[in-house]
């Protein structure tokens, strides 16, 4: 009899031990476009701001486990966000442009978020861009093309996760089918409450079974495709930290179930498509601030929480150092607005001066927003370039915009951004993605399994194993 009790006690102990190591709470942070140099550049920038030539670390880079991952898609050496999102979500490589389907563009594949749901967890999907954008979509939608925004939005309801957050829907109505239901109206039908802004979230959260958090309608009227860049944010704007705090709060309504939460820092990529270094580094810091909120949760549940931080690909081919063996990143602190934000400043001036903006006014705006002439001494050549662009595009002219992936900016805003990047000794290779390694950082239950050089498709499987989800590839 004694032996039986001993056996039983040992069985219980081993069950407890293996159970204790499971990640009941999973955070999956994806910095869109956040290659190794986006992270390293931000840390060196922070170091220079502290007056040293050394890194000033972010929170997530100090996690005990770190490695690198490859990102190529099934069809391209350089992936897009749809194929990369599908790899990071489902563990399957696919064709560029495809969301949650194999490269035949038909066979649907489920994501780690669905595996989590089927294993009884509460699930949240959140981003700083629109909720139907490629990365978040890969966790709940199945579409051959990433730009089918209406269909992706409808898939969100079918997936039925507890919490979604982002700037808004891109296409609340189906432009191709006038009889299709409006996506906001579908919320009622599927038991979702839509809250606009953090304050509204706090008022509505207790009553809601399922929640969609968007920015305010006013903010969406300005730009429904994303919440504002961190560098441009005002007090009333929804932030990625607000979103992360709300997500944790909502998923924690029934902590006994455990949860899976994916949070995307979606605009690191956008800033890098625009080759805007200061804006990109501020976005990486902003993602880090959101991760700090998860880290606080981790500290309360260290044995049962896993935080994984990675990226879907690198964007822009950013180079830290352009020939001289030094950096001058601290100068980027003089930039007070994104390239897009400065475009808005110039638009305002066009209206004020009826398209005939005086050079002195432009100079003042450049001084206020980039520190030119004041903090940053310009060379004659740089000053001539600014004047030249001014003469061609602003002096008695209507706007001529420079187009990048997600923005159309005033030529003068683009030139100012190029000059401050040059001053910082930061270079860019392209306005697109690159195949460079992306970093992977992890802490908590199961983090030790993220070791060795990884391929992106391994990451959801490693998460599922750490959390005990049944993998349904
Ligand atoms: Zn991406």
Structure notes:
- By secondary structure, the protein is an alpha/beta fold.
- The protein folds into 2 domains: 23-320 and 431-467, 3-Layer(aba) Sandwich (Alkaline Phosphatase, subunit A), CATH 3.40.720.10; 335-424, no CATH class.
- It has helices spanning 2-20, 36-49, 81-90, 112-118, 134-137, 149-159, 183-189, 198-204, 217-222, 240-251, 267-273, 277-300, 339-352, 359-370, 380-393, 411-424, 458-467, and strands at residues 25-31, 65-70, 122-127, 163-165, 192-196, 210-214, 259-265, 305-311, 314-315, 319-320, 401-403, 408-410, 426-427, 433-434, 438-444, 454-455.
- Strands 5-6-4-3-7-1-8-15-2-16 form a 10-stranded mixed sheet, with helices on both faces. Strands 9-14 form a two-stranded antiparallel sheet.
- The protein starts with a helix and ends in a 6-residue tail after the last helix.
- Mean pLDDT is 95; it is low at 16-20.
- Zinc ion binds next to helix 3.
Topology:
Layout: H1 2-20, E1 25-31, H2 36-49, E2 65-70, H3 81-90, H4 112-118, E3 122-127, H5 134-137, H6 149-159, E4 163-165, H7 183-189, E5 192-196, H8 198-204, E6 210-214, H9 217-222, H10 240-251, E7 259-265, H11 267-273, H12 277-300, E8 305-311, E9 314-315, E10 319-320, H13 339-352, H14 359-370, H15 380-393, E11 401-403, E12 408-410, H16 411-424, E13 426-427, E14 433-434, E15 438-444, E16 454-455, H17 458-467
Parallel strand pairs: 1-7, 1-8, 2-16, 3-4, 3-7, 4-6, 5-6
Antiparallel strand pairs: 2-15, 8-15, 9-14, 10-13, 11-12
Helix pairs in contact: 2-12, 3-17, 10-12, 11-12, 13-14, 13-16, 15-16
Bound molecules: zinc ion.
């Amino acid at each position: 009899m004694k032996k039986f009790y001993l056996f039983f006690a040992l069985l219980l102990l081993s069950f407890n031990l293996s159970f204790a190591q499971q990640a009941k709470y999973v955070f999956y942070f994806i910095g869109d476009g956040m290659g190794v140099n986006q992270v390293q550049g931000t840390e060196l920038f922070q170091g220079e701001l502290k007056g040293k030539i050394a890194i000033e670390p972010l929170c997530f880079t100090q996690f005990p486990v770190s490695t690198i991952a490859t990102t190529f898609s099934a069809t391209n050496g350089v992936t897009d966000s749809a194929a990369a999102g599908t790899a990071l979500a489902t563990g399957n490589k696919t064709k560029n442009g495809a969301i949650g389907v194999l490269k035949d563009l038909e066979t649907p594949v489920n994501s780690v978020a669905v595996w989590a749901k089927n294993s009884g967890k509460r699930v949240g999907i959140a981003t700083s861009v629109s909720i139907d954008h490629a990365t978040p979509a890969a966790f709940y939608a199945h579409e051959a093309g990433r730009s089918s925004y209406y269909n992706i939005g409808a898939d969100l309801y079918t997936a039925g996760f507890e919490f979604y957050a982002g700037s808004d829907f891109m296409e609340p109505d189906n432009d191709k089918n006038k009889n299709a239901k409006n996506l906001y109206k579908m919320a009622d039908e599927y038991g979702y409450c839509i809250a606009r802004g953090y304050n509204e979230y706090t008022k509505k959260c207790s009553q809601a079974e399922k929640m969609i958090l968007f920015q305010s309608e006013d903010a969406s009227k300005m730009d429904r495709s994303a919440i504002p860049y961190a560098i441009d944010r005002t007090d009333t704007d929804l932030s990625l930290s607000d979103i992360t705090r709300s997500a944790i709060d909502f998923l924690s309504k029934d902590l006994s179930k455990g949860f899976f939460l994916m949070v995307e820092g979606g605009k690191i990529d956008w800033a890098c498509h625009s080759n805007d270094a200061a804006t990109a580094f501020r976005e990486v810091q902003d993602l880090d601030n959101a991760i700090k909120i998860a880290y606080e949760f981790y500290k309360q549940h260290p044995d049962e929480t896993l935080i994984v931080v990675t990226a879907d690909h690198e964007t822009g081919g950013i180079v830290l150092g352009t020939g001289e063996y030094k950096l001058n990143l601290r100068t980027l602190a003089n930039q007070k607005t994104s390239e897009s934000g400065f475009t808005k400043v110039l638009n305002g001036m066009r209206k004020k001066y009826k398209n005939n903006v005086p050079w002195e006014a432009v100079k003042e705006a450049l001084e206020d927003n980039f520190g030119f002439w004041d903090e940053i001494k310009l060379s004659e050549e740089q000053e001539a370039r600014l004047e030249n662009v001014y003469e061609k595009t602003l002096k008695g002219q209507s706007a001529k915009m420079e187009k990048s992936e997600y923005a159309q900016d005033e030529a003068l805003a683009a030139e100012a951004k190029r000059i401050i990047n040059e001053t910082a000794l930061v270079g860019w290779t392209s306005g697109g993605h690159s195949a460079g390694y992306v970093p992977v950082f992890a802490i908590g239950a199961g983090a030790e399994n993220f070791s060795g050089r990884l391929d992106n498709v391994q990451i959801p499987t490693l998460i599922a194993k750490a959390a005990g989800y049944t993998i349904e590839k």
